[in-house]
Amino acid sequence: MEVAGGTRARLRVTADGLQALAGRCATLAGELSAAVAPSGAVLSWQANAVAVNAAHARAGAAAAAVSARMRATAAALGQAARRYAGQDTAAAAALGGVRPWGTH
């Protein structure tokens, strides 16, 4: 992986790390969903009440969309962690079956 300055960085991925990231995304999505929209402190007769209410509705819709995306990301990360762990286990088993060089 290239980073600034042309140096290379090594990306280290573990199933536990992916699972932790999935849990964090799910937690943040839940917090975002639970966020209370600003109260409608404006009276309906005020001239800007309609604009404020519309802005609140758009903010709520945006929060719902972001939350849904975060939940989908959390689910995908969890699935990736399970597949990664399964492949790692299968590779370890395959390597365990290989005889050392020069043995019969």
UniProtKB/TrEMBL annotation:
SUPFAM superfamilies: EsxAB dimer-like. InterPro entries: ESAT-6-like_sf. This is Putative alanine rich protein. It comes from Mycobacterium tuberculosis.
